[in-house]
Amino acid sequence: MTTADLQIPAAPGTAHQDRQGLDGLAVVRTRAELDAARRAMTGRVVLVPTMGALHEGHRALIRAAHTLGDHVVVSIFVNPTQFGPGEDLDRYPRTTWVDLDMCAEEDVALVFMPKADEMYGPGLGIRVESGDLADRLEGAVRPGHFSGVLTVVAKLFGMVSPQAAVFGEKDYQQLVLIRAMSRELALGVDVYGLPTVRESDGMALSSRNRYLDEHQRVIARALSRALRAGTTVAEHGPARVLAVAQAVLEDEPELIVDYLALTDPELGPEPESGPARLLVAGRLGTTRLIDNLALDLGRAVAGPTETSEAARV
Prior knowledge:
globular, alpha/beta, Rossmann fold, 9 helices
């Protein structure tokens, strides 16, 4: 890709063509193309890493990224190294043209859509490993998952060379680990978190929600209900928060709960008071969903609120 291929993104709401002439949207698939496109950018670049199947939560991430820099780069890559045996790599939703339309509508400067051999190649199999945190919560249920996540994000940081990156708080453990990786490996990328975007029924927006049938969708709402119920009794302390949230989950026996946990904001031990994070994960059939909410133990609240403003973490 030459620098001449970079175009000013079309205005929101405009219809677009495909990659052979996707009006206003530059799409690259190789490191060489990415390097050329990146060199043509001046100013602050903000990366929004995704696995595609973009939804309104991703749209919010892109819009937040625009407030943080001059150019927004979106990566779309279903990363095989973060899927374990028997997980949904093969059936993970892939909606390429819908994704590109959203990126064009949101004035994304560049979309990076590599194939697996472009990201990993023959290589030496070098991976990013983390400490104890990667083996707890999601890591306990999905061994090796976070090594795959951290490795691909480190690669994207190196390839795109952004000054900042934006991630959703729905994958909260991932956010905490990526923030720590950027800091401890001195990658020079400011990591921002965006509060979870929710559907009208309170469920966290997720690409995997589309797996649920109508009956399962009703049951799945128990995850967000349990979190909200727990936060409303935060003034009574951690034991009460967990008991109330657990009671909501037990009302849905079809929902298999992998964990319900109360931690400090950095996912450390459960605090007695002050800022905390309530996290839950559960399965319905072959679909696995996660969610979390922030709360302040010892302080009365009217209920959790979600905002669309990016928060530096």
